[in-house]
Amino acid sequence: MRNTFRLPDTGRIDRGKPVSFRFNGTQHTGFVGDTLASALLANGVHLVGRSFKYHRPRGFLSAGAEEPNALVTVTRGAGRTTPNLPATMIELYEGLEAHSQNHWPSLSFDVGAVNDLLHPLFAAGFYYKTFMWPRSFWDKVYEPFIRQAAGLGKSPTQRDPDIYTSRHAFCDVLIVGAGAAGIAAALAAAKTGAQVILADEQAKPGGTMLKEHPARIDGAPSDTWLHTSLATLREAENVTVLERTCAFGVYHENFIGLRQALTDHQADLPPDQPRERLWKVRAKAVVLAQGAIERPMSFSGNDRPGVMLAGAARTYLNGHGVCVGHRPVIVTSNDTAWQSAFDLAGAGMSVSAIVDVRDTVAKGLVARADRAGIAVFTGSQVLGTSGRLRVSSITISSPKHAGQKKIACDSVLMSAGWTPSLHLWSQASGAIAWDDALQAYVPDGGLDGVFVAGAGSGKFGLAEALVSGWRAGAHAVASAGFELTAQAPAFKVRGEAISSPATPALTHPQGRAFVDFQNDVTTKDIRLAVQEGFRSVEHIKRYTTTGMATDQGKTSNINALATSASALGVAPHEAGLTKFRPPYTPITFGTLAALRRDETFQPVRKTPIDPWAEDKGAVFEPVSLWRRARYFPKAHETMHQAVARECRSVREGVGMFDASTLGKIEVVGPDAAEFLNRLYVNAWTTLKPGRCKYGVLLGEDGFIRDDGVIARIAEDRFHVTTTTGGAARVLTMMEDYRQTEWPDLKVWLTSTTEQWAVIAVNGPNAKRLIEPFIEGIDLSDETFRHMSYAEGTIAGVELRLFRVSFTGERGYEINVPASEGLRIWDMLHAAGADHGLVVYGTETMHVLRAEKGYIIVGQDTDGTVTPQDAGLAWAIGKKKPDFVGKRSLTRPDMLLPDRPQLVGLLTADAGKVLEEGAQVVSDWSATARPLGHVTSSYWSEALGRSIALALVAGGHDAMDTEVTVVAGRDMASATITGTVFYDPKGERINA
Amino acid sequence: MIQIHCPYCCELLPEQEFAYAGEAHIVRPEDPGALSDEAWRDYLFLRTNARGPYHERWRHVHGCSRFFNALRDTVSDRILVTYRMGEAPPAPPSEEGGDA
Amino acid sequence: MPDAMRPATTVTPLPPCIRYSIRTLPSGLALLEDLFGESFPTQVGQVSGMPDRFVSCLGPDEWSFVAPGPEKSRLASACAELPEHFEGSITDISAREVGYLIEGAEAATLLNSGCPRNLRGMPTPSAARTVFDGVAIGLVKWQDDAFRLDVWRSFVPHIRACLDLALNDLV
User: Fold this and answer.
1) Domains plus CATH for chain B?
2) A582 and A257 in contact (C-beta within 8 Å)?
């Protein structure tokens, strides 16, 4: 067990529990409580990745979620490959297997590093400038090249075996961040009995308290306070503490997305347990206690492995007992990094120097440094660093040394101040203001139901965190309607770390100082963008890609802003800040999809007869959310053969069809007939009970919306059918008119689509098939003629029987309660053998209706077709003064003679089946006129030739005209005909 | 996801239960046949599409099934008030807050 | 209570029952109360009756009546004798939906896997038509740990599969 850089007795890891893991195939050991980053650092591994564009060697910049450099791929068996995970956020577990990314052939020798030598070529806007010409190169050369070169980790290629879940949750107060501020807020809010959720992205709550030497809070060690407070919260019935849970987005009205990682940290994955859980939380009030993120210094060579944030070094030391180097140099512009120097010196490291850009520093700090034997350089700038795969020296300008000084070191710990995390505040539409002392934006003013505490509000230090946290918790719970009577604890803090991040305006070095480490954006790139004319920070961001990597610029945004502002010659607050957008940290597709995957991807509606069709090997097709049996192939039959057989059998014998998906609406009330009269084009008041009629429904714009047969069951009760896809839409439209235009009508609507299973029986033997089972209805053609309706029983089951036909053959539609549908279907099917029964699907239904010229709304109409266009003017009740859409039918455009009108097309070559959607043109010449398109096209088995329906300009007056039909390179000539191809006299309806 | 107060259920409920239903207070003419082509066109197609407070209709489709009216600020996407069909529309809040 | 001791949350299909969708004007309520022997609450969400026979108010003029299956013929003949002057609609939707009982300490959490309503905060007893993963559902909350869920028949495979997946999340 090497752990050369692990210190005795320091840190908050469990030394009794060693954990072995592999990085790039090499076995290492860490401890429970380590992150992959801290465990690698304990073993002296600093080089962990190659940068995105220049393939520069990179190490750890941070110790948290803001990490831009140390992205690794974790693999744990088939399908469980996750790229681009920050090593700083990966909890160590036994057997963890991680790999670095973006290099070839190896991490220490990477051919792609040649890009770094060519860096002048890869400046801001490189892609826009380079890959412009010749245009023909884009598809074949540039795009494949860019796709090959771009990207960090590789996507997994296998199916993800994990499950993901989501849930809606509701609380009075949601607290984001369980550091001192968040915990204090939770303690306050919880005291009132309010429902509280406390979420923290880390494995252990505690925030900065886990990264510092223990202080004392109200007389007790801060670790004890933390332990006690968390125990109190966990025991409280009204508090939910969520670890490993990142609040990734704030949406309208305190709707917050949380992503909870459930199993990734476990060595043995529990079977059937979700990997991640998406919480969709609606909170009455929110406390944001996210803390602040330290900023890197901009200097040439600030990206070498071994150069990291000063606070991160302190986290590794105090949190994990790891020293990031034996000879660190501190480079800073504020007091907080001095604490890192003192902590490291206190742990026995030989701190080579503190380099502070400020000319004067508090005397106390300098004295403390002197006592620790640390050289101090004030008023100094960093000029550069050296070292190939790890920093080995730093060169500074020093007024004291009249010029430059080179200092040998094995790590550089930098701090250019702290940026309050405004991400969620800003997403919630909170205003921000520039704080000159912090050189950062802070929350400005208030927001309904959102409260900020601790470093995230620009208030630094443990005492401030506790006090502002409690206060925010109290305000939040009050805004959620609870009264907090408990007094705030004194929160007397002793021995806390240096917490003054006041920072002078940032300096702007020449050379290649990295601003965005992950996207390899330097200060030079930003200046170039400004030089090339970009003025808005949003544009500079997109042109240089700064802040656009997976870390979303957590460490880079303020530095990029300062550099932009300096180049633009304005103050930072005048340059503005780019917009914060969710997610705060990357989130897996699995979490977002949650339950919506595989069979639960979306609802697939199934009819009561669906199991029968599935059992018989039906081929299904989706129709809106339904799946419907399209055809029933026998062994070795093609679709064409199956459909031809089904068509033949219906016209010669009898066919059975599952029409259960038809929309059904029961329209009831004394004004039911009047209501339908006002809605549909047809006349309904004269329809007698026991009869039905084909109805056409328009929008107010006069275009066909839906159609279907409507039966009058009684004076005050109608059974309306709609198209399968139109059921919900028609009911909505009906409710709209009923509730808002004609609230005086006494009529009520109930969807009965799923109350009734519908079996359509069509063909010359239809009556013979069903008659033996039916009681209470006289089926003779005299009493039960075409378009009749009656109620009775079939095999003892309640029956609503329609005499209707969508095939042109004698037809009946048997409606039975859905729960009985399959039984009745089975019974009729068993009896069918004697009558030449075939079961047919939607494809045959389409062919048979097209042979008769019956339209399908949505296929032969497209929302711009009037009843006249569709040849349905006959359905319009001529004496009606008004119905929905009537006024539009006489608008000037509706009367134009060259409107697209529905006609039949017969191809010159009878065997040629046109493509649906094919264009109809006048002829094939330079002066050809476009006329319309084919809407339906099939092989008609009954006619032994192809048939088609088409919308053709002025088609009704162009019978027998020859036209050309074009689909891609395919061309055919056809003749315009009427729409009824089969049995034009309609004799088969009674055959 | 916004929350919507259904004036029939008298409860603040999640947006998923509701459906948008276009601008409010557009009444179907009593006798469309008497309207000129232009007047009918305006009824059919012309909408205010306001920036800011906007009277619009919603339907509690996965709830009480009722259409109702709302005043929604199209800039902040907040529903300021909801009211039942047939009730008089509340005036949009004045810009400067100034009756003075 | 330790998790291991909590009774598991379960999803159980309910036996077929009679369901009527009832619509009327306030003037029709007295007649209906006589006919069905239940009081008809007038605030949306209110329920009267017992889990196997109840009336819930789903909208300002809409009620759902549920009764045990064996009452079918008695109820049908009672409806047939409604007086001419009754202004309203009674529509049999017994076969339209399938009912489930969701029972257990985490019943609300389970339903909240797909339903965006605050089900823990929903009063007992009360009823609501709401939505689960985009699908309309009916809920009656009888107790904090007992919900009745009704869903249109064709959506049953989807809703069942979603609930079964979400059950994994309660362990």
Assistant:
1) 3-27+36-84 (3.30.2270.10)
2) yes
